[in-house]
Specification:
The structure holds two protein chains of two kinds.
Chain A lengths: L1 E3 L4 E9 L6 H11 L9 E2 L2 E2 L2 E2 L3 E8 L5 E8 L7 H8 L4 E7 L5 H17 L9 E6 L9 H10 L4 E3 L8 H20 L1 H5 L3 H11 L6 H5 L17
Parallel strand pairs in A: 2-7, 2-8, 8-9, 9-10
Antiparallel strand pairs in A: 1-2, 3-6, 4-5, 6-7
Helix pairs in contact in A: 2-3, 5-7
Chain B lengths: L10 H5 L6 H4 L2 H15 L3 E5 L4 E4 L5 H6 L3 H15 L8 E5 L5 E9 L2 E11 L9 H4 L7 H8 L7 H90 L8 H32 L7 E3 L1 H18 L3 E6 L6 E3 L1 H17 L6 E11 L10 H4 L3 E10 L33 H11 L3 E6 L5 E8 L7
Parallel strand pairs in B: 7-9
Antiparallel strand pairs in B: 1-2, 1-5, 3-4, 4-5, 6-8, 9-10, 10-12, 11-12
Helix pairs in contact in B: 8-9, 9-13, 10-11, 11-13
The chains are: A alpha/beta, B alpha+beta.
Chain lengths: ~240, ~475
């Protein structure tokens, strides 16, 4: 997070992590497509080869909240292939929140696991643990055959801590919900640490609703947040906060 | 570790929108060329300034009227005044403003924004409206030393353009610049990432090399200590013990003359206890090696079936003596596992011997193995259960007996060194209490787990789970 008091600007870094070809870039493309013009900048894709990210993608989103605070979201992806470990470590540095994009297909389960362990290891290198990091998990590619069943994921999700979302990023399904869930967790964590809502007279629920609206989802925010199938959305929130 | 070059901007600075400047993103010469080409096409003079007010590109066209005005003091003052005002013109919310000079020319100023931040400004002008054919009075009255006819003539050479057309030009130029800035930013990030990745990989290798060197030095030292320790223990303890056992054996065999039945029994006990002591010393050696980390597991692809068969074969004589049946049940098509076959054999030998020891005659001890999967989750960091659960393939071994069983409360303690469930001096079964503790350490060394459950209808099952593949990370 970078806070510019003079210009009343807050920059939040969100990272989409996950195994190769799980749909991280597709998530960003769907967000870019869903965003109102003005809210989103150009989607920058660095160095691709055969549709695979070599360095990272970067989608800048800008929203203006109450108190004149401009919130700039910088959404990154990491390269999924195992060999780009050092790039992933560089990109994940300083992340305020992470969306883990898992491939729902049963035969990709092992890759999801390895990527998740890699994430944990990379966070550890930066002196962080998963516990400290706002994190959501998205099971993407729900439209493909041979995917792990809804029931199986729901059962596992109910035991876990992280909110879990189901998505078909190629059709934009579940993408905005995942993003709102992640932003919600991230904002709660940053607010708990830096007391942002109070400092800037900021109403985070209204802000989330505004972000959702600018991303093309006008449902009430409580309803959007309920789209997750497990985990807890309030784990990182401070005591006594709604 | 290579320190980053002093001028290099960090990844955060480059991506999070702070510290990116116009000069970083665009080549000065290219910008100059673009500005000149723009001027050729539209004839409106154009200058581009950085956010700090530095002139980056200029059409560098001498304006004849301005050259003429500069020849007198009042003219120079008026020109400087206009230049200063235009350069620092307050821009509207939309990032632009026009400046009509008292002397008739117009300027249009537009901010150059990138990623929502102003990083410079472009100044278009001077230009005059096509409708204006005569210079205004203010220009003619500027200085009496200037020839009005010459002023009129030069005034007409100033580029003609309407304000709304200039606004459109500025917008077009802004969009073109934005694309150039975007491409420049991407190129900058790409080259930066190349460098950073190389630096990071280098750092990683250096790190690993250092760790390897430290580990290597430590191993050399430990190896030396281990050799000393082993030599001392085997010599100092085992040599006299061998004599004790040897001489007792000779006595038992009657080499020193016939003994009474009672003497025979006593000496036999000395021999048995000596043998037991020897086993204890061997076990202690194993344990100390495991604890100090000097027991190296020589892992390779090991065959589960052959390990279990070998164990069964080894214990068969002892089992027969106790009339305990031994069975091996191994699932077909089990993969090879990444393990030290010799140590694995020791694990199951200890467990099987133990099982036979606590199983009454006509009982049964079964060794079995099947494919299963275990939690890959780390106990220390319990996150990511939904992703981590149920994914590591492992082999589950079971050593089941129909013996006396182990009470629930004792199960976690039987793996402690020297712990005996029945520690009374009258207990039936012998043993050093080291076997299970060695088992547990060896299983740990294989990244596996060992636990105890009840056997139906009676007895105990030791379940050892060992992953098929070595851990990929961590």
């Amino acid at each position: 997070m970078q806070l510019d008091f003079v210009n009343r600007e807050l920059t939040i870094k969100l990272v989409y992590y996950g195994p190769a070809l799980s749909g991280k870039t597709t998530n960003l493309q769907a967000l870019h497509k869903a965003a109102e013009p003005g809210a989103s900048g150009r989607l920058m894709t660095l160095e691709t080869k055969d549709d695979r990210t070599l360095f990272f993608d970067l989608l800048p989103l800008t929203f203006r909240g109450q108190g004149g605070l401009a919130v700039r979201l910088k959404v990154f992806t990491v390269p999924g292939q195992v060999i780009h470990a050092s790039t992933r470590r560089l990109v994940v540095q300083g992340a305020d929140g992470i969306a883990f994009i898992a491939d729902s297909r049963s035969n990709e389960t092992q890759h999801n696991t390895e990527s998740f362990m890699d994430l944990r290891e990379n966070l550890k290198q930066h002196g962080l643990t998963l516990k400290q990091m706002p994190l959501i998990i998205q099971f993407n590619k729900r439209d493909l055959p041979d995917v792990r069943s809804d029931a199986e994921i729901a059962e596992l999700a109910a035991k876990g801590r992280e909110p879990v979302y189901l998505a078909v990023a190629t059709r934009g399904i579940g993408v905005v919900e995942s993003m709102i869930g992640l932003l919600h967790l991230t904002w709660s964590a940053l607010d708990a640490e830096h007391d942002l809502n109070k400092k800037f007279g900021f109403d985070s629920a209204a802000f989330l609703a505004q972000v959702a609206k600018k991303l093309g989802n006008s449902q009430p925010i409580a309803q959007i947040l309920q789209a997750c199938v497990g985990g807890a959305l309030d784990v990182l929130r401070p005591e006594g906060c709604e | 570790m290579i320190p980053p070059p002093a001028a290099a901007k960090s990844f955060d600075e480059l991506t999070l929108g702070h510290g990116v400047s116009l000069e970083d993103l665009i080549d000065r010469d290219a910008l100059d060329e673009m500005v000149k080409s723009f001027h050729e096409l539209f004839a409106v003079p154009l200058r581009i300034f950085s956010d700090e007010g530095k002139l980056l590109a200029d059409t560098a066209q001498q304006i004849p009227l301005y050259a003429f005005l500069s020849s007198v003091k009042a003219g120079r003052t008026a020109l400087q005044d206009v230049a200063g005002k235009v350069k620092n013109l307050e821009l509207s919310e939309a990032g632009s403003a026009s400046f009509p000079c008292a002397t008739g020319e117009n300027y249009f100023v537009s901010a150059i924004a990138y990623d929502g931040k102003n990083i410079g400004r472009m100044i278009l002008g001077p230009f005059i409206s096509a409708a204006l054919s005569e210079p205004p009075e203010a220009l003619l009255a500027l200085d009496s030393g200037l020839d009005p006819a010459r002023l009129r003539e030069l005034f007409r050479t100033i580029p003609r353009a309407e304000e709304d057309a200039v606004v459109k030009l500025a917008r077009h130029l802004g969009r073109t610049l934005d694309l150039l800035l975007f491409s420049g930013h991407r190129a900058l990030l790409t080259s930066n990432m190349h460098l950073a990745s190389v630096r990071e990989s280098f750092r990683e290798l250096e790190d690993k090399n250092e760790k390897l060197q430290t580990a290597f030095d430590r191993l050399k030292e430990l190896d030396r200590l281990k050799s000393n320790f082993l030599a001392t223990v085997s010599h100092e303890l085992r040599t006299p013990l061998t004599s004790i056992i040897g001489y007792s054996e000779m006595l038992v065999e009657g080499l020193a003359g016939e003994m009474t039945a009672e003497q025979h029994e006593f000496v036999q006990t000395i021999r048995d206890k000596g043998e037991q002591l020897l086993q204890l010393i061997k076990g202690l050696l194993d344990l100390s090696k495991l604890e100090s980390g000097t027991m190296s597991l020589r892992k390779s692809q090991a065959d589960v079936l052959s390990v279990l068969r070998d164990v069964a074969m080894t214990v068969t004589p002892a089992a027969r003596k106790k009339e305990v049946e031994i069975a091996v049940e191994v699932e077909n098509g089990l993969p090879l596992i990444w393990a030290d076959a010799e140590r694995l054999r020791q694990v199951f030998l200890n467990l099987t011997e133990n099982a036979i020891k606590f199983t009454p005659p006509s009982g049964r001890v079964t060794l079995s193995a099947k494919l299963t999967s275990v939690d890959a989750a780390h106990p220390e960091d319990a996150g990511g259960l939904v992703i981590l659960s149920a994914r590591r393939t492992a082999i589950e071994f079971r050593v089941a007996d129909t013996g006396i069983g182990i009470p629930e409360g004792e199960r976690s303690r039987v793996f402690d060194a020297f712990y005996q469930v029945d520690s009374s001096s009258t207990r039936e079964a012998g043993g050093t209490g080291l076997g299970l503790s060695i088992v547990r350490r060896l299983v740990d060394g294989h990244d596996g787990t060992v636990r105890i459950v009840d056997n139906e209808p009676r007895g105990t099952v030791f379940i050892v789970t060992i992953p098929v593949k070595r851990a990929t990370i961590g």
